[in-house]
């Protein structure tokens, strides 16, 4: 979990990543049926964890939806975050046709969305290499599941404009009397590309974009198209960083809004951040994205960064 203090006084944003931790865990009904694919995969590959249901049967005890969080929930409460953003690295679906020849296909029963609610999750980033593990119907059900639970999605959608628009979280006006602008001037864009979220409430907002890069295992075919559900993809070019910066500059209200990018980039583990990734993240930060978290390395990696621009 990564926690950053926000730039605004008393604003805290908790950013965390949640992946197969409960993908292989119990489903909503308490049983854990392994798909034939999971069972076959477990049989084929040494070291691949077997779905618990195939080994030990049902969990001996039913647990509440908060259970998978463990002590993280208390820690999060203690931080009193204004915003909780996760990278949800699994599909939430019962669809059973895996993306072919992928090897690792994460799936979480839609009923487990109660666990995300129990953690107070407001935004789920889906620009990663597992949201389409159960093909387009699996992504569509994931979107419906999250939306149905009142959790906003960043980085994937029913088409490119939905996948690439920022998700907006309205914060309550700052306690210190910080002036907030009217939102009337904002979001003049058409409804399609306009940020998702409340539009005409005063007060600071957090805008979250999700971006996936092929270095983290997101397939090119997963890129959302004009009429194709998928992921908002990025390359690591200066031009793309500039486009993201321009979109952020256009959507943000200067002085009050906070921009966050959930960037899924890089391979698992490893010790270094390749130069291209450094340059891209620096370019984002020097643009309009002073809060950025990059995922998938599974360990903290040092990457010298320039000072953030003042908002
Ligand atoms: C993209 O998807 C959204 C949500 O389904 C829809 O409202 C919008 O019209 C779509 N845009 C295009 C260009 O198809």
TrEMBL record:
Residues 15-287 form the Capsule synthesis protein CapA domain. Residues 1-28 form the signal peptide. It holds the Pfam family PGA_cap. Residues 29-64, 173-203 are annotated as: Disordered. Residues 174-198 have a biased composition (Low complexity). Belongs to the CapA family. This is Poly-gamma-glutamate synthesis protein (Capsule biosynthesis protein). It comes from Monoraphidium neglectum.
């Amino acid at each position: 979990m990564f926690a950053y203090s926000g730039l605004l006084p008393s604003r805290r944003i908790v950013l965390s990543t949640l992946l197969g931790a409960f993908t292989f865990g119990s489903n909503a009904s308490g049983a854990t049926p392994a798909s034939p694919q999971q069972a076959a995969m477990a049989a084929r590959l040494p070291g691949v964890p077997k779905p618990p249901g195939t080994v030990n049967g049902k969990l001996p005890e039913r647990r509440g939806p908060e259970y998978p969080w463990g002590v993280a929930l208390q820690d999060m409460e203690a931080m009193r975050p204004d915003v909780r953003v996760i990278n949800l690295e699994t599909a939430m679906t019962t669809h059973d046709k895996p993306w072919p020849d992928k090897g690792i296909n994460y799936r979480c029963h839609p009923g487990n969305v109660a666990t995300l609610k129990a953690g107070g999750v407001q935004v789920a980033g889906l620009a990663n290499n597992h949201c389409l593990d159960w093909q387009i119907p699996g992504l569509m059900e994931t979107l419906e599941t999250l939306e149905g639970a009142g959790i906003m999605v960043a980085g994937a959608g029913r088409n490119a404009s939905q996948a690439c628009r920022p998700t907006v979280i309205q914060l309550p006006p700052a306690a210190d009397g910080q002036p907030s602008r009217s939102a009337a001037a904002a979001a003049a864009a058409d409804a399609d590309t306009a940020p998702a979220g409340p539009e005409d409430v005063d007060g600071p907002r957090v805008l979250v974009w999700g971006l996936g890069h092929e270095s983290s295992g997101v397939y090119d075919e997963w890129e959302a198209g004009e009429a194709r559900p998928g992921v908002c993809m990025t390359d690591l070019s200066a031009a793309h960083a500039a486009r993201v910066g321009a979109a952020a500059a256009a959507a943000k209200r200067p002085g009050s809004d906070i921009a966050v990018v959930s960037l899924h980039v890089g391979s698992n583990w490893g010790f270094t951040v390749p130069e291209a990734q450094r340059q891209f993240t620096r370019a984002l930060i020097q643009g309009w994205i002073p809060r950025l978290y990059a995922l998938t390395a599974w360990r903290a990696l040092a990457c010298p960064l320039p000072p953030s621009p003042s908002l």
